[in-house]
């Protein structure tokens, strides 16, 4: 059986139930405007949540509006977001996107996407350089409440360890395999809880497999736990 076939709706419901028992239920909430989430998610690429949040906060403190940021020199944007890492890449990318939205729409807002079908809204966001599947889907999920399922590095790692996707499936493609197997009303909570699990338990380095409530569902965790229990010198 191919690994991705193990991501059955029944198994996904069991994973979600265990995550809820471990971390508590999470209610959907809206996190700012679409542009806020778009910029914030770009800043989150290849860095920690704390660093990206700091960069976003400094950007908002420095510029009174996204129009002001769009009209600012790239170096000024870069100084604000340096803490988020890759400032030389992200600063021109952010300014280019802000300007492109304004040129097309007459103002820097993407709230019109709320009225579009998720696939059309996704295609619109993906046209911008630097906006990958995760970034686009995060905007649709967090700002517009659409029933999509972004896959970040935490979720990708957990999905591979659980055998929900095969080892060759990229994070960019994993959402295509997993989304249909998660009930639309559960996708927000599954996303948030899997990230919490990745940060607290199923960490990239030194995962806490012995404490994991998903252990009986996880081939990787079972191998790690078995190895750690072997007699010394074996």
Your description of this structure?
With about 230 residues, this protein is an all-alpha fold. It folds into two domains: about 100 residues, Endonuclease Iii, domain 2, CATH 1.10.1670; about 110 residues, Hypothetical protein, domain 2 (Endonuclease III, domain 1, Orthogonal Bundle). The chain is built from twelve helices and no strands. Helix 2 crosses helix 3 and helix 7 packs across helix 8. The longest helix is centred in the middle third of the chain and has 19 residues. The N terminus and C terminus are likely disordered.
Topology:
Blueprint lengths: L8 H15 L10 H10 L5 H14 L3 H6 L2 H8 L5 H19 L12 H9 L6 H11 L9 H10 L8 H8 L8 H14 L18 H10 L6
Helix pairs in contact: 1-11, 2-3, 2-8, 5-6, 7-8, 9-11
Q: By CATH's scheme, which homologous superfamily of the largest domain applies?
A: Hypothetical protein, domain 2
Per DSSP, what share of the residues sits in E-state strands of 2 or more residues? Answer: under 5%
Give helix % range.
55-70%
Number of helices: 12
Point out poorly predicted stretches: 1-5, 230-234
Q: How many separate domains? A: 2
Give the tally of β-strands: 0
Largest sheet: none
- Mean pLDDT across the residues is 92
Span between termini: 32 Å
In short:
By secondary structure, this protein is an all-alpha fold. It contains 12 helices and no strands. It has 2 domains: 3-27 and 150-224, Helix-hairpin-Helix base-excision DNA repair enzymes (C-terminal) (Endonuclease Iii, domain 2, Orthogonal Bundle); 34-143, Endonuclease III, domain 1 (Orthogonal Bundle), CATH 1.10.340.30.
């Amino acid at each position: 059986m191919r690994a991705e076939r193990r991501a059955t709706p029944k198994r996904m419901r069991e994973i979600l139930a265990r995550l809820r028992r471990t971390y508590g239920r999470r209610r959907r909430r809206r996190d700012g405007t679409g542009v806020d989430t778009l910029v914030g998610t770009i800043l989150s690429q290849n860095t920690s949540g704390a660093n990206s949040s700091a960069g976003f906060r400094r950007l908002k403190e420095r510029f009174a509006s996204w129009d002001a940021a769009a009209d600012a020199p790239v170096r000024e944007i870069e100084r604000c977001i340096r803490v988020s890492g890759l400032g030389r890449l992200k600063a021109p990318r952010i300014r280019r996107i802000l300007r492109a939205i304004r040129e097309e729409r007459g103002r820097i807002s993407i709230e019109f996407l709320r009225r579009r079908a998720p696939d059309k809204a996704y295609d619109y966001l993906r046209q911008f350089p630097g906006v990958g599947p995760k970034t686009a889907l995060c905007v649709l999920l967090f700002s517009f409440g659409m029933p999509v399922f972004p896959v970040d590095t935490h979720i990708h790692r957990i999905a591979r360890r659980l055998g929900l996707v095969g080892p060759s499936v990229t994070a960019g493609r994993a959402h295509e395999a997993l989304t249909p197997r998660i009930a639309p009303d559960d996708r927000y909570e599954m996303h948030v809880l899997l990230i919490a699990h990745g940060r607290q338990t199923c960490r990239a380095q030194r995962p806490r497999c012995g404490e994991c409530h998903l252990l009986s569902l996880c081939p990787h965790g079972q191998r790690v736990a078995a190895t750690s229990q072997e007699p010394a010198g074996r």
